[in-house]
Amino acid sequence: MKGANLALGAAGLAVFLALGEAVPRLGLVKEAYFPPTSKIADAFTGELADAAFWTALGDTLTGWAVGLAVAACAGIVAGVVISVVPYLREATASTIEFLRPIPSVALIPLAVLLYGNELRSVLLLVVYASFWQVLIQTLYGVRDVDPVAEETARSYGLGTWARVRYVLWPTALPYVMTGLRLAAAVALILTVTAELVIGSPGLGARIGIAQNSQAVPDMYALIVVTGLLGLLINVGARSVERRALAWHQSVRGEVAV
Protein backbone atom coordinates (compact mmCIF):
# COMPACT_ATOMS: atom_id res chain seq x y z
CA MET A 1 0.00 0.00 0.00
CA LYS A 2 2.81 2.38 0.88
CA GLY A 3 4.58 1.63 -2.41
CA ALA A 4 1.37 2.33 -4.33
CA ASN A 5 0.99 5.68 -2.58
CA LEU A 6 4.57 6.61 -3.44
CA ALA A 7 4.01 5.64 -7.07
CA LEU A 8 0.85 7.73 -7.26
CA GLY A 9 2.64 10.67 -5.67
CA ALA A 10 5.52 10.39 -8.14
CA ALA A 11 3.06 10.16 -11.06
CA GLY A 12 1.22 13.26 -9.87
CA LEU A 13 4.48 15.18 -9.56
CA ALA A 14 5.54 14.09 -13.06
CA VAL A 15 2.25 15.29 -14.52
CA PHE A 16 2.58 18.61 -12.70
CA LEU A 17 6.12 19.15 -14.02
CA ALA A 18 5.02 18.20 -17.54
CA LEU A 19 2.19 20.74 -17.39
CA GLY A 20 4.64 23.35 -16.14
CA GLU A 21 6.79 22.69 -19.20
CA ALA A 22 3.93 22.56 -21.71
CA VAL A 23 1.80 25.52 -20.66
CA PRO A 24 4.37 28.28 -21.43
CA ARG A 25 5.69 26.40 -24.48
CA LEU A 26 2.19 26.33 -25.98
CA GLY A 27 1.78 30.05 -25.38
CA LEU A 28 -1.00 29.69 -22.84
CA VAL A 29 0.97 31.98 -20.53
CA LYS A 30 3.93 34.20 -21.29
CA GLU A 31 7.33 32.74 -20.53
CA ALA A 32 8.31 36.10 -19.06
CA TYR A 33 5.84 35.45 -16.24
CA PHE A 34 5.97 31.67 -15.97
CA PRO A 35 9.06 30.01 -17.50
CA PRO A 36 9.03 26.32 -18.46
CA THR A 37 10.03 23.70 -15.92
CA SER A 38 13.31 23.07 -17.74
CA LYS A 39 14.40 26.70 -17.36
CA ILE A 40 13.47 26.68 -13.69
CA ALA A 41 15.48 23.47 -13.27
CA ASP A 42 18.50 25.12 -14.93
CA ALA A 43 18.16 28.11 -12.62
CA PHE A 44 17.84 25.74 -9.65
CA THR A 45 21.10 24.03 -10.63
CA GLY A 46 22.77 27.42 -10.97
CA GLU A 47 21.61 28.43 -7.50
CA LEU A 48 23.06 25.27 -5.99
CA ALA A 49 26.43 26.12 -7.52
CA ASP A 50 26.38 29.66 -6.08
CA ALA A 51 28.06 30.13 -2.70
CA ALA A 52 25.80 33.12 -1.97
CA PHE A 53 22.79 30.81 -2.16
CA TRP A 54 24.13 28.60 0.61
CA THR A 55 24.87 31.65 2.73
CA ALA A 56 21.27 32.82 2.26
CA LEU A 57 19.98 29.35 3.10
CA GLY A 58 22.04 29.35 6.28
CA ASP A 59 20.65 32.76 7.27
CA THR A 60 17.09 31.52 6.75
CA LEU A 61 17.66 28.34 8.72
CA THR A 62 19.29 30.32 11.53
CA GLY A 63 16.32 32.68 11.86
CA TRP A 64 13.92 29.74 11.68
CA ALA A 65 15.72 27.55 14.23
CA VAL A 66 16.46 30.27 16.79
CA GLY A 67 12.98 31.77 16.56
CA LEU A 68 11.31 28.36 16.85
CA ALA A 69 13.47 27.36 19.82
CA VAL A 70 12.65 30.56 21.72
CA ALA A 71 8.94 30.30 20.92
CA ALA A 72 8.81 26.61 21.89
CA CYS A 73 10.49 27.13 25.26
CA ALA A 74 8.43 30.22 26.07
CA GLY A 75 5.17 28.63 24.93
CA ILE A 76 5.64 25.41 26.90
CA VAL A 77 6.77 27.14 30.10
CA ALA A 78 4.04 29.77 29.92
CA GLY A 79 1.37 27.16 29.16
CA VAL A 80 2.34 24.98 32.11
CA VAL A 81 2.66 27.89 34.54
CA ILE A 82 -0.65 29.42 33.47
CA SER A 83 -2.35 26.05 33.88
CA VAL A 84 -0.98 25.07 37.30
CA VAL A 85 -1.12 28.44 39.07
CA PRO A 86 -4.63 28.94 40.50
CA TYR A 87 -6.78 31.58 38.77
CA LEU A 88 -3.92 32.56 36.42
CA ARG A 89 -5.62 30.95 33.42
CA GLU A 90 -8.80 32.96 33.98
CA ALA A 91 -6.77 36.12 34.55
CA THR A 92 -4.84 35.75 31.28
CA ALA A 93 -7.60 34.35 29.05
CA SER A 94 -8.83 37.71 27.73
CA THR A 95 -5.29 38.96 27.10
CA ILE A 96 -4.39 35.82 25.18
CA GLU A 97 -7.54 35.99 23.07
CA PHE A 98 -6.79 39.65 22.28
CA LEU A 99 -3.14 39.20 21.32
CA ARG A 100 -3.34 35.84 19.54
CA PRO A 101 -5.33 36.98 16.45
CA ILE A 102 -2.97 39.88 15.69
CA PRO A 103 -1.22 38.98 12.39
CA SER A 104 2.55 38.83 12.79
CA VAL A 105 3.04 40.75 9.54
CA ALA A 106 1.28 43.68 11.20
CA LEU A 107 4.32 43.92 13.48
CA ILE A 108 6.72 44.43 10.58
CA PRO A 109 6.78 48.25 10.98
CA LEU A 110 7.55 47.82 14.67
CA ALA A 111 10.31 45.29 13.93
CA VAL A 112 11.89 47.61 11.37
CA LEU A 113 11.62 50.55 13.76
CA LEU A 114 13.33 48.61 16.55
CA TYR A 115 15.95 46.56 14.71
CA GLY A 116 16.05 47.60 11.05
CA ASN A 117 16.80 44.67 8.77
CA GLU A 118 18.81 42.74 11.36
CA LEU A 119 18.19 39.14 12.39
CA ARG A 120 16.39 40.40 15.49
CA SER A 121 13.59 41.76 13.30
CA VAL A 122 13.07 38.29 11.84
CA LEU A 123 13.17 36.72 15.29
CA LEU A 124 10.58 39.14 16.64
CA LEU A 125 8.08 38.10 13.98
CA VAL A 126 8.91 34.39 14.10
CA VAL A 127 8.72 34.16 17.88
CA TYR A 128 5.46 36.08 18.06
CA ALA A 129 3.75 33.91 15.42
CA SER A 130 5.10 30.56 16.65
CA PHE A 131 4.61 31.24 20.36
CA TRP A 132 0.82 31.12 20.14
CA GLN A 133 0.82 27.78 18.34
CA VAL A 134 2.74 26.16 21.19
CA LEU A 135 1.00 28.02 24.02
CA ILE A 136 -2.56 27.22 22.93
CA GLN A 137 -1.81 23.54 22.35
CA THR A 138 -0.10 23.31 25.73
CA LEU A 139 -3.13 24.86 27.42
CA TYR A 140 -5.45 22.41 25.67
CA GLY A 141 -3.20 19.52 26.67
CA VAL A 142 -3.18 20.46 30.32
CA ARG A 143 -6.94 20.90 30.27
CA ASP A 144 -7.25 17.30 29.05
CA VAL A 145 -5.62 15.87 32.20
CA ASP A 146 -7.84 13.26 33.87
CA PRO A 147 -9.20 14.77 37.12
CA VAL A 148 -9.14 11.32 38.75
CA ALA A 149 -5.43 10.93 37.98
CA GLU A 150 -4.82 14.44 39.31
CA GLU A 151 -6.65 13.73 42.57
CA THR A 152 -4.91 10.38 42.94
CA ALA A 153 -1.52 12.08 42.61
CA ARG A 154 -2.54 14.61 45.25
CA SER A 155 -3.71 11.89 47.61
CA TYR A 156 -0.31 10.18 47.33
CA GLY A 157 1.36 13.41 48.39
CA LEU A 158 2.97 14.37 45.09
CA GLY A 159 4.04 17.99 44.98
CA THR A 160 3.19 20.46 42.22
CA TRP A 161 6.19 19.75 40.00
CA ALA A 162 5.96 16.00 40.60
CA ARG A 163 2.36 16.14 39.35
CA VAL A 164 3.51 18.18 36.37
CA ARG A 165 6.17 15.58 35.53
CA TYR A 166 4.20 12.38 36.05
CA VAL A 167 0.58 13.37 35.38
CA LEU A 168 0.33 16.62 33.45
CA TRP A 169 3.26 16.30 31.05
CA PRO A 170 2.45 12.82 29.63
CA THR A 171 -1.10 13.96 28.93
CA ALA A 172 -0.10 17.29 27.43
CA LEU A 173 2.83 15.99 25.36
CA PRO A 174 0.76 14.93 22.29
CA TYR A 175 -0.77 18.41 22.19
CA VAL A 176 2.64 20.03 22.66
CA MET A 177 4.11 18.02 19.77
CA THR A 178 1.23 19.11 17.56
CA GLY A 179 1.90 22.71 18.55
CA LEU A 180 5.61 22.34 17.77
CA ARG A 181 4.86 20.85 14.35
CA LEU A 182 2.51 23.72 13.52
CA ALA A 183 4.96 26.26 14.90
CA ALA A 184 7.78 24.85 12.75
CA ALA A 185 5.78 25.53 9.59
CA VAL A 186 4.64 28.96 10.76
CA ALA A 187 8.22 29.88 11.72
CA LEU A 188 9.45 29.13 8.20
CA ILE A 189 6.65 31.17 6.63
CA LEU A 190 7.39 34.18 8.82
CA THR A 191 11.15 33.86 8.32
CA VAL A 192 10.87 34.00 4.53
CA THR A 193 8.17 36.70 4.69
CA ALA A 194 10.28 38.90 6.97
CA GLU A 195 13.32 38.50 4.74
CA LEU A 196 11.28 39.33 1.64
CA VAL A 197 9.56 42.39 3.08
CA ILE A 198 12.23 43.75 5.42
CA GLY A 199 15.24 42.76 3.35
CA SER A 200 16.97 40.76 6.06
CA PRO A 201 19.61 38.37 4.67
CA GLY A 202 18.18 35.02 3.59
CA LEU A 203 16.19 33.25 0.89
CA GLY A 204 13.35 35.78 1.08
CA ALA A 205 15.69 38.68 0.33
CA ARG A 206 17.24 36.66 -2.49
CA ILE A 207 13.77 36.07 -3.97
CA GLY A 208 13.11 39.82 -3.85
CA ILE A 209 16.40 40.57 -5.59
CA ALA A 210 15.61 38.04 -8.33
CA GLN A 211 12.18 39.62 -8.85
CA ASN A 212 13.53 43.16 -9.05
CA SER A 213 16.25 42.14 -11.48
CA GLN A 214 13.74 40.32 -13.73
CA ALA A 215 15.52 36.99 -13.16
CA VAL A 216 12.20 35.14 -13.25
CA PRO A 217 13.56 31.56 -13.54
CA ASP A 218 15.83 32.21 -10.55
CA MET A 219 12.88 33.59 -8.60
CA TYR A 220 10.84 30.46 -9.25
CA ALA A 221 13.84 28.25 -8.44
CA LEU A 222 14.19 29.95 -5.06
CA ILE A 223 10.47 29.55 -4.43
CA VAL A 224 10.88 25.83 -5.14
CA VAL A 225 13.73 25.77 -2.61
CA THR A 226 11.49 27.26 0.08
CA GLY A 227 8.83 24.68 -0.77
CA LEU A 228 11.31 21.83 -0.47
CA LEU A 229 12.56 23.30 2.78
CA GLY A 230 9.02 23.39 4.14
CA LEU A 231 8.50 19.78 3.07
CA LEU A 232 11.68 18.65 4.83
CA ILE A 233 10.73 20.54 7.99
CA ASN A 234 7.27 18.98 8.03
CA VAL A 235 8.65 15.46 7.47
CA GLY A 236 11.27 16.02 10.17
CA ALA A 237 8.70 17.36 12.62
CA ARG A 238 6.43 14.38 12.05
CA SER A 239 9.36 12.02 12.55
CA VAL A 240 10.28 13.67 15.85
CA GLU A 241 6.63 13.58 16.89
CA ARG A 242 6.37 9.84 16.21
CA ARG A 243 9.55 9.14 18.16
CA ALA A 244 8.51 11.30 21.12
CA LEU A 245 5.06 9.68 21.21
CA ALA A 246 6.08 6.10 20.45
CA TRP A 247 4.37 5.09 23.71
CA HIS A 248 1.12 6.89 22.86
CA GLN A 249 -1.90 5.02 21.51
CA SER A 250 -2.28 7.34 18.51
CA VAL A 251 1.22 6.55 17.23
CA ARG A 252 1.07 2.85 18.13
CA GLY A 253 -2.24 2.59 16.31
CA GLU A 254 -0.78 4.38 13.29
CA VAL A 255 2.18 1.98 13.19
CA ALA A 256 -0.10 -1.04 13.55
CA VAL A 257 -2.21 0.07 10.61
UniProtKB/TrEMBL annotation:
Pfam families attached to this UniProt entry: BPD_transp_1 (PF00528)
Keywords tagged on the record: Cell membrane, Membrane, Transmembrane, Transmembrane helix, Transport
Family: Belongs to the binding-protein-dependent transport system permease family.
Membrane disposition: Multi-pass membrane protein
InterPro entries linked: MetI-like, MetI-like_sf
ABC transmembrane type-1 domain: residues covered: 57-241
Entry-linked CDD domains: TM_PBP2 (cd06261)
SUPFAM superfamilies, sorted: MetI-like
Localization per record: Cell membrane
The UniProt record lists the keyword Manganese: no
The name this protein goes by in its record: ABC transporter permease
Coiled coil: none
Residue intervals passing through the bilayer: 64-86, 180-199, 219-237
